[in-house]
Amino acid sequence: MNKYILPVSVLGTVVGCGVLLKDYMTGGVCPSKDKIQGKTVVITGANTGLGKETARELAKRGGRIIMGCRNMEKCETAAREIRGETLNKHVYARHVDLASIKSIREFANRVNQEEERVDILINNAGVMRCPAWKTEDGFDMQFGVNHLGHFLLTNLLLEKLKSSAPSRVINLSSLAHIVGEMDFNDLNWERKKYDTKKAYCQSKLANVLFSRELAKRLQGTGVTVNALHPGVAATELGRHTGMHQSQFSSTVLGPFFYLLVKTPQQGAQTIVFLAVAKELEEVTGRYFDVLQEKEPAPRALDDEAAQRLWEASASLVGLEQMEPAPPTKGTTDPLPPHHQQQQQQGPMPITAVPQQA
Q1: What global pTM score does this model have?
Q2: Which residue is catalytic, options 24, 92, 194, 200?
Q3: Sequence-ordered strand ranges (E) for 101-239
Q4: Residue 200 catalytic?
Protein backbone atom coordinates (compact mmCIF):
# COMPACT_ATOMS: atom_id res chain seq x y z
CA MET A 1 0.00 0.00 0.00
CA ASN A 2 1.30 3.40 -0.91
CA LYS A 3 2.36 5.13 2.31
CA TYR A 4 0.59 8.34 1.23
CA ILE A 5 -2.85 6.79 0.71
CA LEU A 6 -3.81 6.63 4.40
CA PRO A 7 -2.72 10.19 5.33
CA VAL A 8 -4.41 11.62 2.24
CA SER A 9 -7.59 9.67 2.99
CA VAL A 10 -7.63 10.89 6.57
CA LEU A 11 -7.03 14.47 5.47
CA GLY A 12 -9.79 14.21 2.90
CA THR A 13 -12.20 12.83 5.49
CA VAL A 14 -11.36 15.61 7.95
CA VAL A 15 -11.81 18.31 5.30
CA GLY A 16 -15.07 16.75 4.13
CA CYS A 17 -16.43 16.55 7.67
CA GLY A 18 -15.35 20.15 8.25
CA VAL A 19 -17.25 21.33 5.19
CA LEU A 20 -20.38 19.41 6.21
CA LEU A 21 -20.14 20.70 9.78
CA LYS A 22 -19.71 24.27 8.56
CA ASP A 23 -22.77 23.90 6.33
CA TYR A 24 -24.77 22.62 9.32
CA MET A 25 -23.48 25.30 11.70
CA THR A 26 -24.18 28.13 9.27
CA GLY A 27 -27.77 27.17 8.45
CA GLY A 28 -27.61 25.58 5.02
CA VAL A 29 -28.78 26.90 1.66
CA CYS A 30 -31.99 28.51 0.46
CA PRO A 31 -34.52 25.68 0.08
CA SER A 32 -36.50 27.47 -2.63
CA LYS A 33 -35.70 26.96 -6.32
CA ASP A 34 -38.21 29.58 -7.47
CA LYS A 35 -37.27 31.87 -10.36
CA ILE A 36 -38.04 35.57 -10.64
CA GLN A 37 -38.12 36.21 -14.39
CA GLY A 38 -39.73 39.56 -15.17
CA LYS A 39 -39.23 40.90 -11.67
CA THR A 40 -37.13 43.93 -10.76
CA VAL A 41 -34.95 43.84 -7.64
CA VAL A 42 -33.39 46.89 -5.97
CA ILE A 43 -30.50 46.04 -3.62
CA THR A 44 -28.50 48.57 -1.61
CA GLY A 45 -24.86 47.95 -0.78
CA ALA A 46 -24.58 45.42 -3.61
CA ASN A 47 -20.95 45.86 -4.64
CA THR A 48 -19.55 43.55 -1.97
CA GLY A 49 -20.42 41.03 0.72
CA LEU A 50 -23.98 39.81 1.22
CA GLY A 51 -25.41 42.37 -1.20
CA LYS A 52 -23.18 41.25 -4.05
CA GLU A 53 -23.88 37.56 -3.46
CA THR A 54 -27.61 38.25 -3.24
CA ALA A 55 -27.46 40.17 -6.52
CA ARG A 56 -25.55 37.30 -8.12
CA GLU A 57 -28.06 34.66 -6.99
CA LEU A 58 -31.11 36.69 -7.97
CA ALA A 59 -29.55 37.44 -11.36
CA LYS A 60 -29.14 33.68 -11.85
CA ARG A 61 -32.85 33.33 -11.14
CA GLY A 62 -33.73 35.74 -13.92
CA GLY A 63 -34.28 39.01 -12.07
CA ARG A 64 -33.63 42.52 -13.34
CA ILE A 65 -31.12 43.75 -10.76
CA ILE A 66 -30.58 47.37 -9.74
CA MET A 67 -27.44 47.56 -7.61
CA GLY A 68 -27.45 50.70 -5.47
CA CYS A 69 -23.95 51.54 -4.19
CA ARG A 70 -21.90 54.45 -2.89
CA ASN A 71 -18.65 53.41 -4.61
CA MET A 72 -19.50 53.36 -8.31
CA GLU A 73 -16.17 51.95 -9.43
CA LYS A 74 -16.65 48.85 -7.29
CA CYS A 75 -20.32 48.70 -8.23
CA GLU A 76 -19.62 48.75 -11.97
CA THR A 77 -16.96 46.06 -11.54
CA ALA A 78 -19.36 43.87 -9.55
CA ALA A 79 -22.16 44.38 -12.07
CA ARG A 80 -19.90 43.39 -14.98
CA GLU A 81 -18.75 40.31 -13.07
CA ILE A 82 -22.31 39.22 -12.35
CA ARG A 83 -23.46 39.84 -15.92
CA GLY A 84 -20.56 37.76 -17.23
CA GLU A 85 -21.08 34.88 -14.81
CA THR A 86 -24.87 34.66 -15.01
CA LEU A 87 -25.30 35.75 -18.66
CA ASN A 88 -28.04 38.03 -17.37
CA LYS A 89 -27.57 41.37 -19.13
CA HIS A 90 -30.13 43.09 -16.90
CA VAL A 91 -27.79 43.91 -14.02
CA TYR A 92 -27.24 47.62 -13.50
CA ALA A 93 -25.04 49.79 -11.27
CA ARG A 94 -26.64 52.92 -9.80
CA HIS A 95 -25.27 55.46 -7.35
CA VAL A 96 -26.80 55.95 -3.91
CA ASP A 97 -25.20 57.13 -0.69
CA LEU A 98 -27.36 56.11 2.28
CA ALA A 99 -25.59 58.80 4.34
CA SER A 100 -27.11 61.54 2.17
CA ILE A 101 -30.80 62.46 1.94
CA LYS A 102 -30.09 64.24 -1.34
CA SER A 103 -28.47 61.13 -2.84
CA ILE A 104 -31.30 58.87 -1.65
CA ARG A 105 -33.92 61.12 -3.22
CA GLU A 106 -31.98 61.26 -6.51
CA PHE A 107 -31.64 57.47 -6.58
CA ALA A 108 -35.32 56.94 -5.79
CA ASN A 109 -36.38 59.45 -8.43
CA ARG A 110 -34.27 57.65 -11.03
CA VAL A 111 -35.70 54.26 -10.11
CA ASN A 112 -39.25 55.62 -10.18
CA GLN A 113 -38.69 57.22 -13.59
CA GLU A 114 -36.71 54.45 -15.29
CA GLU A 115 -38.24 51.27 -13.90
CA GLU A 116 -41.71 50.06 -14.79
CA ARG A 117 -41.90 48.09 -11.57
CA VAL A 118 -40.09 47.28 -8.34
CA ASP A 119 -40.99 43.81 -7.10
CA ILE A 120 -38.34 43.33 -4.43
CA LEU A 121 -36.52 45.97 -2.36
CA ILE A 122 -33.61 44.65 -0.31
CA ASN A 123 -32.30 47.15 2.25
CA ASN A 124 -28.89 45.58 2.74
CA ALA A 125 -26.30 48.37 3.00
CA GLY A 126 -24.98 49.08 6.45
CA VAL A 127 -22.15 50.16 8.71
CA MET A 128 -21.07 48.48 11.93
CA ARG A 129 -19.34 49.96 14.97
CA CYS A 130 -17.69 52.81 13.12
CA PRO A 131 -16.30 55.82 15.03
CA ALA A 132 -18.59 58.70 16.00
CA TRP A 133 -19.09 59.83 12.42
CA LYS A 134 -22.00 61.90 11.16
CA THR A 135 -23.89 61.65 7.91
CA GLU A 136 -24.09 64.51 5.43
CA ASP A 137 -27.27 65.65 7.19
CA GLY A 138 -25.86 65.43 10.71
CA PHE A 139 -27.26 62.08 11.83
CA ASP A 140 -25.30 59.45 13.70
CA MET A 141 -23.70 57.38 10.91
CA GLN A 142 -24.97 54.01 12.12
CA PHE A 143 -28.53 55.18 12.83
CA GLY A 144 -28.50 57.33 9.69
CA VAL A 145 -27.33 54.66 7.24
CA ASN A 146 -28.72 51.49 8.80
CA HIS A 147 -32.17 52.90 9.57
CA LEU A 148 -32.96 56.44 8.41
CA GLY A 149 -31.51 56.03 4.92
CA HIS A 150 -33.47 52.86 4.25
CA PHE A 151 -36.57 54.28 5.94
CA LEU A 152 -36.55 57.18 3.48
CA LEU A 153 -35.68 55.07 0.43
CA THR A 154 -38.43 52.55 1.15
CA ASN A 155 -41.05 55.26 1.54
CA LEU A 156 -39.96 56.96 -1.68
CA LEU A 157 -40.37 53.65 -3.57
CA LEU A 158 -43.65 52.64 -1.94
CA GLU A 159 -45.94 53.66 -4.78
CA LYS A 160 -43.83 51.67 -7.24
CA LEU A 161 -43.88 48.68 -4.89
CA LYS A 162 -47.65 48.94 -4.48
CA SER A 163 -48.27 49.11 -8.21
CA SER A 164 -46.04 46.03 -8.66
CA ALA A 165 -47.81 43.96 -5.99
CA PRO A 166 -47.40 41.28 -4.87
CA SER A 167 -44.05 42.74 -3.91
CA ARG A 168 -41.62 42.47 -1.02
CA VAL A 169 -39.45 44.66 1.23
CA ILE A 170 -36.60 42.89 3.01
CA ASN A 171 -34.69 44.64 5.79
CA LEU A 172 -31.38 43.32 7.07
CA SER A 173 -31.24 43.49 10.83
CA SER A 174 -29.04 41.52 13.19
CA LEU A 175 -29.17 39.33 16.27
CA ALA A 176 -27.64 42.41 17.91
CA HIS A 177 -31.13 43.95 18.03
CA ILE A 178 -31.73 41.83 21.14
CA VAL A 179 -29.62 44.18 23.26
CA GLY A 180 -30.63 47.32 21.39
CA GLU A 181 -32.41 50.21 23.12
CA MET A 182 -34.21 53.13 21.48
CA ASP A 183 -33.24 56.39 23.18
CA PHE A 184 -35.90 58.68 21.75
CA ASN A 185 -34.43 61.63 23.63
CA ASP A 186 -31.07 61.23 21.89
CA LEU A 187 -31.34 59.00 18.81
CA ASN A 188 -28.31 60.67 17.23
CA TRP A 189 -25.94 60.56 20.22
CA GLU A 190 -25.74 64.31 20.73
CA ARG A 191 -26.05 64.32 24.53
CA LYS A 192 -24.25 61.21 25.72
CA LYS A 193 -20.84 59.66 25.22
CA TYR A 194 -20.73 57.71 21.98
CA ASP A 195 -20.75 53.93 22.29
CA THR A 196 -20.15 52.21 18.94
CA LYS A 197 -21.70 48.92 20.06
CA LYS A 198 -24.84 50.46 21.57
CA ALA A 199 -25.30 52.70 18.52
CA TYR A 200 -25.10 49.68 16.23
CA CYS A 201 -27.54 47.66 18.34
CA GLN A 202 -29.98 50.59 18.41
CA SER A 203 -29.90 50.80 14.61
CA LYS A 204 -30.55 47.07 14.27
CA LEU A 205 -33.49 47.24 16.69
CA ALA A 206 -34.80 50.12 14.59
CA ASN A 207 -34.70 47.84 11.53
CA VAL A 208 -37.08 45.35 13.16
CA LEU A 209 -39.40 48.00 14.59
CA PHE A 210 -39.56 49.70 11.20
CA SER A 211 -40.33 46.41 9.45
CA ARG A 212 -43.23 45.60 11.76
CA GLU A 213 -44.70 49.10 11.62
CA LEU A 214 -44.44 49.31 7.84
CA ALA A 215 -46.05 45.88 7.49
CA LYS A 216 -49.04 47.13 9.48
CA ARG A 217 -49.34 50.29 7.42
CA LEU A 218 -49.27 48.26 4.21
CA GLN A 219 -52.01 45.82 5.17
CA GLY A 220 -54.12 45.00 2.14
CA THR A 221 -51.72 46.49 -0.43
CA GLY A 222 -50.01 43.26 -1.45
CA VAL A 223 -46.62 44.54 -0.23
CA THR A 224 -44.97 42.40 2.45
CA VAL A 225 -42.21 43.52 4.80
CA ASN A 226 -39.88 41.24 6.75
CA ALA A 227 -36.62 41.60 8.68
CA LEU A 228 -33.83 39.08 9.08
CA HIS A 229 -30.62 38.18 10.81
CA PRO A 230 -28.41 36.63 8.11
CA GLY A 231 -25.96 35.05 10.54
CA VAL A 232 -22.37 36.11 11.10
CA ALA A 233 -20.61 36.36 7.76
CA ALA A 234 -17.05 37.17 6.79
CA THR A 235 -17.66 40.49 5.05
CA GLU A 236 -16.25 44.02 5.16
CA LEU A 237 -19.04 45.06 7.55
CA GLY A 238 -16.89 44.23 10.58
CA ARG A 239 -13.81 46.14 9.47
CA HIS A 240 -14.15 48.60 12.38
CA THR A 241 -14.21 45.89 15.04
CA GLY A 242 -11.14 44.82 17.00
CA MET A 243 -11.57 41.22 15.88
CA HIS A 244 -10.57 42.09 12.33
CA GLN A 245 -7.41 43.79 13.58
CA SER A 246 -6.28 41.08 16.00
CA GLN A 247 -3.47 38.70 15.08
CA PHE A 248 -4.64 36.34 17.83
CA SER A 249 -8.15 36.17 16.36
CA SER A 250 -6.91 35.47 12.86
CA THR A 251 -4.41 32.76 13.84
CA VAL A 252 -5.40 30.97 17.05
CA LEU A 253 -9.17 31.35 16.71
CA GLY A 254 -9.23 31.12 12.92
CA PRO A 255 -10.25 27.43 12.70
CA PHE A 256 -13.17 27.98 15.08
CA PHE A 257 -14.29 31.08 13.17
CA TYR A 258 -14.23 28.99 10.00
CA LEU A 259 -16.90 26.69 11.41
CA LEU A 260 -19.09 29.46 12.84
CA VAL A 261 -18.67 32.33 10.39
CA LYS A 262 -20.37 32.17 7.01
CA THR A 263 -18.98 33.02 3.64
CA PRO A 264 -20.83 35.89 1.91
CA GLN A 265 -22.54 33.31 -0.31
CA GLN A 266 -23.80 31.40 2.72
CA GLY A 267 -24.86 34.62 4.44
CA ALA A 268 -26.98 35.61 1.45
CA GLN A 269 -29.15 32.49 1.59
CA THR A 270 -31.81 33.89 3.95
CA ILE A 271 -32.08 37.09 1.92
CA VAL A 272 -32.61 35.06 -1.24
CA PHE A 273 -35.16 32.87 0.54
CA LEU A 274 -37.24 35.88 1.65
CA ALA A 275 -36.97 37.35 -1.84
CA VAL A 276 -38.07 34.36 -3.93
CA ALA A 277 -39.93 31.71 -1.91
CA LYS A 278 -43.54 31.41 -3.05
CA GLU A 279 -44.60 30.11 0.35
CA LEU A 280 -43.62 33.49 1.83
CA GLU A 281 -45.64 35.58 -0.61
CA GLU A 282 -48.18 36.60 2.06
CA VAL A 283 -45.92 36.43 5.10
CA THR A 284 -45.34 39.92 6.52
CA GLY A 285 -44.21 41.69 9.67
CA ARG A 286 -42.02 38.76 10.68
CA TYR A 287 -38.41 38.28 11.74
CA PHE A 288 -36.19 35.50 10.42
CA ASP A 289 -33.03 34.18 12.05
CA VAL A 290 -31.05 32.49 9.30
CA LEU A 291 -33.66 30.37 7.44
CA GLN A 292 -36.17 30.06 10.28
CA GLU A 293 -38.90 32.43 11.40
CA LYS A 294 -38.22 33.44 15.01
CA GLU A 295 -39.74 35.81 17.50
CA PRO A 296 -37.59 38.93 17.88
CA ALA A 297 -36.61 40.47 21.19
CA PRO A 298 -39.43 41.85 23.38
CA ARG A 299 -38.34 45.44 22.64
CA ALA A 300 -38.85 44.75 18.93
CA LEU A 301 -42.48 43.78 19.63
CA ASP A 302 -43.30 47.14 21.22
CA ASP A 303 -45.94 48.63 18.90
CA GLU A 304 -45.88 51.98 20.69
CA ALA A 305 -42.12 52.25 20.20
CA ALA A 306 -42.46 51.24 16.54
CA GLN A 307 -45.00 54.00 15.89
CA ARG A 308 -42.93 56.55 17.79
CA LEU A 309 -39.83 55.57 15.80
CA TRP A 310 -41.79 55.98 12.56
CA GLU A 311 -42.91 59.49 13.49
CA ALA A 312 -39.44 60.52 14.64
CA SER A 313 -37.83 59.12 11.50
CA ALA A 314 -40.32 60.81 9.18
CA SER A 315 -39.68 64.14 10.87
CA LEU A 316 -35.90 63.76 10.76
CA VAL A 317 -35.76 63.02 7.02
CA GLY A 318 -38.50 65.50 6.08
CA LEU A 319 -40.98 62.87 4.91
CA GLU A 320 -44.72 63.44 4.78
CA GLN A 321 -46.49 61.13 7.19
CA MET A 322 -48.26 58.11 5.72
CA GLU A 323 -51.47 57.13 7.48
CA PRO A 324 -51.43 53.68 9.03
CA ALA A 325 -53.89 51.21 7.56
CA PRO A 326 -57.08 50.86 9.62
CA PRO A 327 -57.50 47.49 11.34
CA THR A 328 -59.29 44.98 9.12
CA LYS A 329 -62.23 42.96 10.36
CA GLY A 330 -61.05 40.13 12.56
CA THR A 331 -57.62 41.66 13.13
CA THR A 332 -56.25 40.61 16.51
CA ASP A 333 -53.30 42.99 16.47
CA PRO A 334 -54.72 46.44 15.66
CA LEU A 335 -52.56 49.51 15.22
CA PRO A 336 -52.33 51.94 18.10
CA PRO A 337 -53.97 55.33 17.43
CA HIS A 338 -51.88 57.39 15.08
CA HIS A 339 -51.04 60.98 15.98
CA GLN A 340 -50.82 63.38 13.09
CA GLN A 341 -47.73 65.52 12.81
CA GLN A 342 -47.32 68.69 10.82
CA GLN A 343 -45.44 67.95 7.59
CA GLN A 344 -41.86 69.18 7.68
CA GLN A 345 -40.41 70.99 4.69
CA GLY A 346 -36.94 69.62 5.42
CA PRO A 347 -35.09 67.58 8.02
CA MET A 348 -35.71 68.68 11.59
CA PRO A 349 -32.75 69.60 13.74
CA ILE A 350 -31.53 66.31 15.09
CA THR A 351 -32.01 67.42 18.69
CA ALA A 352 -35.71 68.05 18.07
CA VAL A 353 -36.87 64.46 18.04
CA PRO A 354 -40.65 64.38 18.70
CA GLN A 355 -41.59 63.26 22.17
CA GLN A 356 -44.30 60.73 22.96
CA ALA A 357 -47.72 62.19 22.29
Answers
A1: 0.80
A2: 200
A3: 120-123, 167-172, 223-229
A4: yes
